[in-house]
Design a protein that fits this description.
Elements lengths: L1 H27 L18 H4 L13 E18 L4 E2 L1 E17 L3 E19 L16 E18 L3 E20 L5 H4 L9 E15 L2 E12 L16 E16 L8 H18 L1
Antiparallel strand pairs: 1-3, 1-9, 2-4, 3-4, 4-5, 5-6, 6-7, 7-8, 8-9
């Protein structure tokens, strides 16, 4: 038993000695530390030492620009006052092109940006049958209406990036114009089916926001978004039916989209601007050292 303990202790001592020797050999593989005239560390490292160094990638984002196109479907309703029974209507297509600029706030926080674009989609509504009376409410004889709308959104954009994913949120305002109309119902007259009445309002504006997730394959990004749009612009003059009894109707829409975006400038890594700044710092430090 005593011999076994002695053997085990000997093996342990040899193992510790060899480990310390290997570590000393790696550390001694460094060349002599040297500092140049500009104060930079110019120490050289051997391949043996570099093989022992563990490197983790750190994501450093640049200020960068995206241009892309997205498409999808819209789910349309109206906010009526007085309230009317209605159902959500799905319309398509919804298409949009946008220009997005991401930047660091105060040069430190790379989570912000803005987006401007041009989109084409729909607004509309469809009244439901009143189960008590069996009747369907109509506006100008129509139980359902669809508008074709073009819009210009301006949004503040927030994002959080990983190496291959992007999480996005945005909110802002938009201005739009109702290009066309189609009314549905048995009581719609032919002159109004595809035409705006004098009391219909065509300019649109309101609040827009949403969020989504993106797959990043530099320099291409694939985005999946949900967009909520609430209009502050009525679809008709509130008092057109009665000067004493006002009626209001504001579009409320949800869009689900997928899109492809192209990075016009580098998302990560050194840019021409950063290289120029680095070169300027080197020149200034060398001048100061002289």
């Amino acid at each position: 038993m005593r011999r076994l303990i002695i053997v085990l202790l000997s093996l342990l001592a040899v193992s510790v000695s060899l480990s310390a020797q290997d570590q000393n050999e790696v550390e001694e593989a460094l060349t002599a530390t040297s500092i140049d005239q500009a104060g930079r560390d110019t120490t050289l490292y051997s391949n043996m030492y570099l093989d022992t160094v563990k490197i983790s990638r750190k994501l450093i984002l640049n200020d960068y620009t995206l241009f892309g196109v997205q498409g999808g479907v819209s789910f349309n309703r109206m906010s009526f006052n007085p309230t009317q029974k209605q159902e959500t209507v799905m319309n398509m297509p919804y298409v949009s092109v946008s220009f997005t600029r991401y930047y660091k706030m105060f040069g430190l926080y790379p989570y912000f940006g803005f987006s401007i674009g041009l989109s084409y989609g729909q607004e509309g509504y469809k009244f439901k049958e009143d189960k008590e009376t069996g009747k369907v409410f109509t506006v100008d004889g129509a139980s359902s209406v669809r508008y074709d709308v073009v819009e210009l959104p301006f949004l503040m954009a927030g994002h959080v990036d990983t190496h291959n994913l992007k999480f996005m949120a945005n909110i802002g305002i938009y201005a739009g114009y109702r290009l066309g109309i189609e009314r549905f119902g048995t009581s719609v007259t032919d002159d109004l089916r595809y035409s705006f009445a004098d009391h219909d309002l065509r300019w649109d504006y309101g609040l827009q926001g949403g969020g989504g997730i993106g797959i990043v394959l530099d320099p291409i990004e694939i985005h999946f978004n949900g967009i909520v749009r609430y209009s502050w612009g009525e679809i008709y003059e509130p008092d057109y039916a009665s000067k004493y009894y006002y009626r209001y109707a504001y579009p409320f829409d949800i869009m689900v989209t997928a899109g492809i975006y192209f990075q016009l400038t580098k998302r990560t890594g050194r840019t021409t601007r950063s290289l120029k700044l680095e070169a300027r710092e080197i020149v200034n430090s060398e001048r100061a050292a002289k």
